[in-house]
Specification:
Largest sheet: 8 strands, antiparallel
Helix content: under 10%
Number of domains: 2
């Protein structure tokens, strides 16, 4: 144990998530205790395979919602796109699976041991003031690999063009904007059949619901940060802790955001406990209500634009609409052009919206020097007004 301790300290300072090369069994820094309620409601899967129940800790990502999903829809068709493709604005979004452990089905209890502090790349803030929140989940390990698998929307990815993936550098000219294909492009790749992990309970699902979250804080605490805010509750203590809050309504959150404020939590709903004292309670609920908890956000939730492919899009069975560029009153107004927005297929657990514009750059449709400009030469299939006026 004495030989392992310096290595544990070194890994902690380095911000590593995985400790390798130690001899013997190191002692965890902290232990998270969990209790499951309602496990009896979980049955075998469609193949009659008994569930392989495990628990996992997910560190949460900071997300910037796309303005399209914040503002009221401008048409009935746009409303259908938002209803199908926009996820819950206030959901917990996973950044990383930090740890997994088996559930003891004889007691319906579990222990997650952490051997390091969270790494710097998952924490929000700078070195003087940063924090990270985590959700604890119960899942059926359908693929049997011992770890919860995160997912993303099945958006078509091509990292070589302005039509491309999340972080593609748009270097193509207008004449070759969009990938070369034999026929119309499919906006979303079909989901391949296979076993996917199923989540049955989560301690933190959405800020509009009561939550219980794991917190880790270093340095000061920024009360004005919009990272899963607990406005009205006390700041989390330094180090690890278990926090709870009652949630707020979506309507109250939108009103507060319009006023430049954070939504308020009811003070009486706020709880705080040390890991030595607290127990995370996971209550089983229908998995259809928890499909999004495994969904990572593409590009941090920020809007990425694409040039329309020359050969067209396969829009059969998809909700799409022509809408003006949204503006939420912050920053410069966008150019008054029309965008084509396409939602993920109905029933897709990882909801998403793809944005196509005749002019723009990957990160900004109103960029001064566009990576593509087809405003005077729109593809023949383009269903939206070709002019820059909606």
């Amino acid at each position: 144990m004495k030989r392992a301790a310096p290595l544990i300290a070194l890994a902690t300072l380095a911000g590593c998530d995985t400790l390798l090369g130690t001899e013997g069994q190191p002692q965890p820094l902290v232990v998270i205790r969990l209790r499951v309620e309602g496990r009896q409601r979980i049955g075998p899967d469609v193949t009659d395979t008994p569930p392989r129940l495990r628990v996992a800790l997910l560190w949460g990502a900071q997300i910037v919602p796309t303005p399209l999903c914040i503002l009221p829809p401008e048409s009935e068709q746009a409303a259908k796109v938002l209803a199908t493709g926009c996820p819950d604005l206030f959901r917990f979004v996973p950044e990383r699976v930090a740890a997994n452990a088996a559930l003891d089905t004889s007691t319906d209890e579990a222990r997650i041991e952490l051997f390091t502090v969270p790494s710097a790349d998952v924490m929000i803030g700078d070195i003087t003031s940063r924090v990270v929140y985590g959700s604890l989940v119960l899942y059926d390990d359908r693929d049997g690999d011992g770890a919860l698998a995160l997912d993303r929307s099945p958006r078509r990815v091509d990292d070589t063009s302005p039509s491309g993936g999340d972080d593609a550098s748009a270097t193509a000219t207008p004449s070759d904007a969009g990938p070369a294909v034999d026929g119309p492009e499919i906006p979303f790749e079909p989901r391949l059949p296979g076993q996917r992990d199923v989540v049955y309970a989560a301690s933190f699902v959405s800020m509009t619901e009561p939550d219980q979250r794991l917190a880790f804080r270093e340095g000061k605490f920024n009360d004005a940060a919009a990272y899963y805010p607990r406005n009205g509750c006390a700041a989390p203590p330094p180090g690890f802790s278990l926090l709870g809050a009652g949630g707020f309504s979506a309507a109250d959150a939108l009103v507060a955001a319009a006023q430049g404020k954070l939504p308020q939590q009811a003070a009486e709903s706020c709880t705080e406990a040390s890991l030595a004292e607290g127990v995370v309670v996971l209550r089983v609920r229908p998995p259809e209500q928890l499909q999004g908890i495994r969904c990572r956000a593409r590009s941090g939730g920020q809007t990425r634009y694409r040039a329309p492919p020359a050969a067209g899009l396969v829009l059969d069975g998809l909700q799409w609409a022509c809408v003006a560029m949204p503006w939420i009153g912050i920053g410069p107004k966008p150019l008054p052009q029309v965008q084509l927005v396409v939602a993920t297929p109905p029933g897709e657990p990882c909801r998403d919206v793809i944005h196509y514009t005749l002019r723009g750059c990957r990160r900004d449709a109103s960029c001064d020097v566009p990576d593509w400009d087809l405003t005077k030469n729109a593809p023949s299939w383009w269903p939206c007004p070709a002019s820059q006026q909606p």
